[in-house]
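Design a sequence for this backbone.
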């Protein structure tokens, strides 16, 4: 409600209080008139009938007015009630002696009531009308208006006008005080709301600062939003503009578990309207019908009563929607809830961006690890069983499948038979499938990948699922050249992620190359390194001062490893590890990475976590242990004063010592917000000075030898 509306309500309350007092005075006046009429001279003169009529009229008028006041209905204080009241007084005066009647005194409370209820000029008009009524009744009742002397008319007029002016002044004072109190109350309420909102935003900032997992941050932020707005459910939906749908990424409150994974189309839903037009939407079932109920009610059998949707924007693009569902105890959300949701949306959008960035980074690293693992299998495997086993293992990791198998085609019988099976349960004896038989046979015959959801009644898929609830199957034909070799089948309890099909298809295509021609192994390795480099560029792109940093560090590290005459396999591991050494920056806030100046102690402490985060990312994947150690320890020092573990000397792997030198060399030769790049001579002097303390002297000597021979080729950007 606006301050003006509050003032009207408060002013109404004040006027009611004064008008009730006037009603009480009117009852006293009625009693006084009745007593005079019944026991005074007029009664003795035989005017009992007139006095009784006067009493009845006054009682009816006062009763009507008092009833209206008691019910506190503003409509009853309008002009119609005033007309009845004024007419009653005038009629009472006419029936009880004319201008000499005691009812004349009732004009004063009538004028006072009008001045409280209406504007000042209206009250003056009522005073003039009362004076004219006196003159008119005197003329009719006594046959002449000469009854009034000029002084008496002036006194009557002055009294009426004074009453009107006094009432108007009182009304203005009441309105002023009511408005002032309403504005003060509104300001107090707004200040309290601002303080509560500031406390919430401060708590959210603390959560984002102290928690590293973006998904955990989102869940922690959704909880206070739900409590603050009294929503029964709060959901965070991610926008997929290509498919025109919104997917529930996280939810809290009632039905939260069942909501996760729910997809709502842009067309025909309030969340879709919010994402499509990038504007908040607040609605209730009373006026929105079934527009936003259908998807929810069809899935859960529960009708919604109200929804508040706020778009989450990043760089002028909507990345998701924050939806509040069903406010407790109310039919709809309020404007205050909308303001609060809008203020919280910025923090939720930042947390969502970090979560999506981490998911994308994890997806890329998982995909890259799968390609890496498969390339190792293809490079080392000499038997078909080893290749198919490696293919299935990496495909299951990349797609997060629960079960899987590879079926190979028997050209003589046209039957696809299981070659390798991976399940968390007893797989029984899986049946074979003929070409064209069922979904698997059709996918193989048409040589087209397919996603099956639900599984239906296919025996092989049901047995591969082990009788457990499964949501989808992923089928990718294995084609070598123009010949069908088999089909990769994956089973998952929940729906596959959107990128799973493309990733598994890429893995199968790489395996098919090996099936077709062993001479294409180098192509596999090249594609694998390209994928790693693309991932490294994605990580470097988060920090504007480290563009292509990982690529240069990998180039320097490989040159050092070759100078030290390390085995070919170890050189490749060092090169790949150097490309991934900063992968942990995916988990660091972009505000810290892109800060234009030196970091604070708290920000530097957060930055020092990236080797640990990177090691946690690559540890579960198919990388050698040396590569994991390299990622974790590339900021350690030979004297043990580095981080995160304070290792030194021979406890540090040679690969980590190599990447440390390459990393520091590139950092010193790059511009930063707080300094310019050092010259090549200054960098070489620093490497020599720190050899034996920060750096391994043998590694430094090897790198300087390389720079002497290939400096211009290896580091073309330095003078």
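Sequence:
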């Amino acid at each position: 409600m606006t301050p003006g509306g509050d003032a009207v309500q408060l002013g109404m309350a004040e006027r009611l209080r004064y008008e009730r007092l006037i009603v009480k005075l009117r009852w006293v006046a009625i009693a006084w008139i009745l007593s005079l009429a019944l026991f005074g001279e007029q009664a003795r003169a035989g005017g009992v009938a007139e006095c009784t009529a006067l009493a009845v009229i006054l009682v009816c008028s006062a009763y009507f007015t008092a009833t209206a006041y008691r019910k506190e209905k503003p409509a009853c204080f309008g002009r119609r009630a005033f007309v009845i009241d004024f007419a009653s007084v005038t009629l009472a005066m006419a029936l009880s002696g004319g201008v000499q009647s005691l009812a004349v005194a009732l004009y004063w409370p009538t004028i006072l009531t009008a001045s409280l209820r209406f504007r000042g000029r209206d009250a003056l008009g009522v005073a003039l009308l009362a004076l004219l009524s006196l003159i008119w009744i005197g003329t009719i009742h006594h046959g002449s208006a000469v009854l009034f002397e000029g002084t008496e008319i002036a006194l009557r007029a002055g009294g009426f006008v004074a009453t009107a002016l006094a009432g108007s002044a009182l009304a203005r004072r009441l309105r002023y005080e009511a408005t002032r109190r309403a504005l003060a109350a509104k300001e107090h309420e707004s200040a309290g709301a601002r303080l509560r909102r500031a406390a919430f935003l401060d708590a959210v900032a603390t959560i984002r600062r102290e928690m590293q997992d973006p998904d955990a941050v989102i869940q922690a932020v959704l909880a206070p939003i739900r409590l603050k707005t009294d929503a029964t459910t709060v959901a965070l939906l991610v926008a997929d503009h290509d498919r025109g749908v919104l997917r529930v990424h996280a939810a809290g409150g009632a039905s939260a578990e069942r909501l996760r994974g729910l997809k709502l189309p842009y067309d025909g839903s309030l969340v879709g309207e919010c994402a499509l037009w990038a504007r908040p939407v607040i609605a209730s079932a009373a006026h929105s019908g079934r527009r936003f109920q259908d998807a929810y009610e069809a899935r859960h059998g529960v009708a919604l009563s109200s929804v508040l949707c706020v778009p989450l924007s990043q760089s002028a693009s909507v990345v998701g929607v924050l939806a509040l569902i069903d406010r407790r105890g109310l039919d709809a959300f309020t404007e205050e809830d909308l303001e609060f949701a809008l203020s919280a949306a910025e923090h939720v959008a930042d947390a969502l961006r970090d979560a999506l960035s981490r998911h994308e980074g994890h997806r890329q690293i998982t995909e890259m690890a799968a390609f890496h693992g498969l390339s190792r299998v293809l490079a080392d495997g000499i038997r078909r069983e080893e290749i198919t086993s490696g293919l299935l293992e990496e495909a299951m990791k990349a797609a997060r499948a629960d079960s899987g198998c590879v079926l190979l085609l028997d050209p003589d019988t046209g039957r696809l038979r299981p070659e390798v099976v991976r399940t968390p349960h007893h797989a029984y004896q899986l049946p074979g499938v003929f070409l064209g038989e069922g979904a698997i046979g059709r996918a193989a015959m048409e040589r087209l990948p397919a996603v099956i959801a639900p599984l239906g009644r296919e025996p092989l898929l049901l047995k591969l699922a082990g009788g457990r609830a499964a949501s989808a199957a992923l089928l990718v034909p294995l084609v070598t050249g123009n010949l069908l070799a088999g089909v990769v089948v994956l089973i998952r309890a929940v729906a596959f992620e959107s990128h799973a099909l493309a990733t598994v298809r890429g893995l199968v295509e790489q395996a098919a190359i090996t099936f077709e021609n062993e001479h294409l192994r180098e192509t596999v390795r090249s594609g694998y390194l390209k994928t790693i480099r693309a991932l490294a560029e994605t990580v470097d792109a988060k920090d504007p001062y480290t563009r292509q940093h990982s690529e240069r560090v990998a180039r320097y590290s490989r040159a050092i490893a070759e100078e030290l005459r390390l085995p070919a396999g170890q050189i490749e591991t060092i090169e790949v590890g150097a490309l991934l050494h900063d992968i942990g920056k995916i988990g660091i806030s972009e505000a810290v990475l892109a800060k234009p100046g030196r970091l604070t102690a708290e920000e530097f402490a957060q930055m020092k976590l990236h080797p640990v985060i990177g090691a946690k990312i690559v540890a579960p994947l198919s990388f050698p242990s040396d590569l994991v150690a390299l990622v974790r320890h590339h900021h350690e020092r030979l004297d043990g004063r580095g981080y995160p573990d304070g290792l030194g000397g021979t406890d540090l792997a040679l690969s980590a010592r190599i990447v440390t030198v390459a990393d520091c060399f590139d950092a010193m030769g790059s511009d930063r917000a707080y300094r310019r790049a050092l010259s090549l001579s200054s960098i070489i002097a620093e490497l020599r000075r720190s050899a034996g303390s920060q750096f391994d002297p043998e590694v430094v000597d090897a790198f300087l030898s390389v720079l002497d021979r290939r400096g211009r080729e290896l580091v073309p950007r330095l003078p």
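The longest strand covers residues 317-327.
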